[in-house]
Amino acid sequence: xxxxxxxxxxxxxxxxxxxxxxxxxxxxxxxxxxxxxxxxxxxxxxxxxxxxxxxxxxxxxxxxxxxxxxxxxxxxxxxxxxxxxxxxxxxxxxxxxxxxxxxxxxxxxxxxxxxxxxxxxxxxxxxxxxxxxxxxxxxxxxxxxxxxxxxxxxxxxxxxxxxxxxxxxxxxxxxxxxxxxxxxxxxxxxxxxxxxxxxxxxxxxxxxxxxxxxxxxxxxxxxxxxxxxxxxxxxxxxxxxxxxxxxxxxxxxxxxxxxxxxxxxxxxxxxxxxxxxxxxxxxxxxxxxxxxxxxxxxxxxxxxxxxxxxxxxxxxxxxxxxxxxxxxxxxxxxxxxxxxxxxxxxxxxxxxxxxxxxxxxxxxxxxxxxxxxxxxxxxxxxxxxxxxxxxxxxxxxxx
Length: 399
Fold this sequence. Notes:
It is a single chain. This protein is mainly beta. The chain folds into 3 domains: 143 residues, Galactose-binding domain-like (Jelly Rolls); 141 residues, Jelly Rolls (Sandwich), CATH 2.60.120.260; 77 residues, Immunoglobulin-like, CATH 2.60.40.3080. The protein has no helices and 27 strands. Strands 1, 3, 4, 6, 9 and 11 form a 6-stranded antiparallel β-sheet that branches. Strands 12, 14, 15, 17, 20 and 22 form a 6-stranded antiparallel β-sheet that branches. The relative contact order is 0.14.
């Protein structure tokens, strides 16, 4: 997820409307965040970049707006630390109740990419009432005398105030080997993340195999799309089962047993589920046999998950790639499809109109790509492209 693998958010991702999210999606718009003379600030490509102009151990980024509410008790900062001397974020505020100073300290993560840093405000008695001054301080608290260097940066992808101890998630890409992004299971499977997929392998005979997740799913999204390869003759349905603060949820989708058909998109509609709201306390996907034919999985059957996406589209879709100046040509094409973007393309997946995956490839720091589609049958294809945390879907015609 800038995948935040989560720490890869992911994500990235819609959050509850009761919170306040700063996305920095408009070039040149700092969304009322400024700073002292010790930095320059630039908003481009969905990121607020703070560049140090000298040697400092404490650099504030100040909020000048009025939309942050003290009713939100957590601050989540999704940032890429480009200075080896920075090891903490602090929130400093003046409210009508008094002063607030609290923060989070971390192992200096320079070079580790975007991570989520959360500051807990629940124990701050003065975090109440109206805010007259608010700033996020980028700090060295290690006592080692380390100072930033001219030209070092901290990049902010999102700054989020909400009431969730962990930021809500809406997509899972499994792009980091060994990181299951919070998905576990019962003793009926083993689970491995490798090559951009989460593979669950069945360890016995079952007609209902659960894959479990935690509690920070955003219920404002009313559709879930599972891009998966089902390698079991017994399975003919995927169900979502959840417990929320409103009640129980059970919804699913059935299909012709697709073993051997490769990756397909399975969509579950949650719009009619009255209890799909509020906070999620338990969530699982169930790989099920609903045909009543008594078939059971066998040892070695697999379910391979490429993506799990929660959104508000009845068909698979995601964030626009416009901010990355993404383009592709020619369309229609007879042999090769050329891709270009302002930032590195991470992954491209192609589907036919039946929803079957016909091609996938991951890229490493490439802003251009050339896809050989000469062997494809004539027709329309859907192309899913991931750049950083954003994913877009596009159609092209193979002649």
